[in-house]
């Protein structure tokens, strides 16, 4: 099949999108969750506002607003960068929520006990909460990774030729949508299964 | 918190009230197409068991198409009506089969239209569907019913792009899933194509410097340039894309039938009237000569 | 609470930090709005269409379609998800586990293709609405199952044991003791998931189900006001989904009160 190089290119672009966006989302999500559970009222509000705003508006709308709206206020990134930034910002809200759920599952008494021992907020997080919450958040984070993988297909809106867009281009010539898109879908499923497997592995490692 | 909740309740109530009526415009003014439909032909006897007989029995023509293709098949959000060249031809075809212009649009995309035809979810596809030999192996094409030409537009004052070959090495904006992509590839293989989903997105991208040129159907570009003084068309169309009416593969009887209808409306001048009411509203001059049925490779 | 209530100095510092951050954000907003204006995006002519009723009627019709589909998906997926979660914790967990594991890796779009392309070949041509709702429900059921399961597992084991020692049957125990606590544990995830499925209904464009997002695209194509239209659509989504979250938080607070 003469279109294989194009499809492989698209797949690699998808991989890059997934890796970069997940890294960005995780880093940003950490910041947001610390804001959200932290002691400073205004930062808590900022964290909550962030999560609400990004979760409540579809990624596609964010992409359009960032790709076509930002240049209107004088900010212009390359298209690929824009896609990575938007997906990171969007998924960070989900990461923050998953992390917060993990923190919430650590019994209330634990935090209070740590405080009674004189630990600061940072110390409580580091020594008491994170070790207990870490294992609980691996699966939810894995799920976010999978959702993020599927969501990268929307990057085509930003003119990024990833797997779905390249499948579209090939189909435009060949008019064989079922094999082409089922194939592309299986690639996504494979990626998702890989991420799920990785999460399972990590979870078992953290359990011991 | 309370006002957001309240407002959403209000929104929902309002939306609920209006839900039913928008698709059925009560007293829409008689537009050009209604007059054309009135004088459009109706097929005589339909052979029993044929596709057209089945459509007549069902009472409506299922058309695969777009809601967002200006000049061809664009929904007017105010009235809910579908306007444009493709949409009007769909109504005339429905009149020809059913005796009345009853169509139902099923939005198709470039990845769904072949399967939708194959499994009979739609009867015909009218959607900037360029006839190519590869596609003709999966679907049958009646027509061509229209010859489109891709043209180049730039921001006013852009130098160095005067003909298609000049696109080489430039970033060229094109609509995703449009014939423009193949056209650019053929005219300038080294051009980098940047795709966006819709015409306004492509225009915004061009204005914001995401590319040096924008390749699109000439009629659409003329309409865009009329609204945007900063947009400049370069030269004449450099392709001829024969648009076909997609039909189920192998249904020769239906293809013959649709082709006969196309010949009939071409000869009677209806085709030209439809062109005047849609594409002709932005393209100056008389209607072009309609394409010869069966002239495209694959039709 | 993982931190002590701040003392006088802490409160002062927090007030200063608040003032500074509010000022910085305000300054950024002002700069952005002014540049947006300078680019001509705030001209009245570009916003006037959004003050007219036909435009809103069109968008709200789309919103109504979104809400209808989302409600149907939520009803189906949450019930099925609950069943799957208990199935996975039963004596025969593997079929349920397999379902969840497979479903969460398959893109919803593929499921839609199955309903759209494959089923009609076997004579099963679903109405348009269900072509969107069923695949979404199948997919989200797996997600709901995982959320419910996580919630049940997070309930202290002693709770179930206490219920059993009171003579509750397994079913009573689940319904009266474990589930209410489990749902409270995972309410934030449930809300995220619900908001997520509401946004997923945007896949309706594939099956020709015209919902809010697609209506926005058609509208932008018609009026050529790309940025304005998407800002308005974003606002509608924000209002609807934020109300949903607010409702959930209200329920959360109420159940927390009654639990105490």
Automatic annotation (TrEMBL), chain A:
Major site of localization recorded for this protein: membrane
Family, similarity comment: Belongs to the binding-protein-dependent transport system permease family. HisMQ subfamily.
Membrane topology, from the record: Multi-pass membrane protein
Protein's UniProt name: Amino acid ABC transporter membrane protein 1 (PAAT family)
Domain of life: Bacteria
Gene Ontology molecular function: any one: transmembrane transporter activity
Ranges where the ABC transmembrane type-1 domain occurs: 11-199
Record-linked SUPFAM superfamilies: MetI-like
Compartments (UniProt record): Cell membrane
A GO-annotated cellular component: ATP-binding cassette (ABC) transporter complex
Protein's GO biological process: amino acid transport
Keyword terms, alphabetized: Amino-acid transport, Cell membrane, Membrane, Transmembrane, Transmembrane helix, Transport
Transmembrane segments annotated in the record for this chain: 12-37, 49-71, 77-96, 141-160, 180-202
Origin organism lineage: Bacteria, Bacillati, Actinomycetota, Actinomycetes, Pseudonocardiales
UniProtKB/TrEMBL annotation, chain B:
Pfam families (UniProt xref): SBP_bac_3
One record GO biological process: amino acid transport
Protein's UniProt keywords contain Transport: yes
A GO cellular-component term linked to this record: outer membrane-bounded periplasmic space
Annotated ranges, domain Solute-binding protein family 3/N-terminal: 60-279
Regions crossing the membrane: none
UniProt KW keywords: Signal, Transport
Taxonomic superkingdom: Bacteria
Family: Belongs to the bacterial solute-binding protein 3 family.
Designated name of the protein: Glutamate transport system substrate-binding protein
Species: Umezawaea tangerina
UniProtKB/TrEMBL annotation, chain C:
Membrane in keyword set: yes
Cellular localization per UniProt: Cell membrane
Lipid bilayer topology: Multi-pass membrane protein
Record-level GO cellular component terms: ATP-binding cassette (ABC) transporter complex
Top-level taxonomic group: Bacteria
Gene Ontology biological-process annotations: amino acid transport
Database matches in InterPro entries: AA_ABC_transptr_permease_3TM (IPR010065), ArtM/GltK/GlnP/TcyL/YhdX-like (IPR043429), MetI-like (IPR000515), MetI-like_sf (IPR035906)
Keywords: Cell membrane, Membrane, Transmembrane, Transmembrane helix, Transport
TM segment ranges: 62-87, 108-130, 225-244
Molecular function in Gene Ontology: transmembrane transporter activity
Major subcellular site: membrane
Record-linked SUPFAM superfamilies: MetI-like
ABC transmembrane type-1 domain: residues covered: 63-248
UniProt keyword Transmembrane helix present: yes
Protein family according to the UniProt entry: Belongs to the binding-protein-dependent transport system permease family.
Name of the molecule in the record: Glutamate transport system permease protein
Organism of provenance: Umezawaea tangerina
Source species taxonomy: Bacteria, Bacillati, Actinomycetota, Actinomycetes, Pseudonocardiales
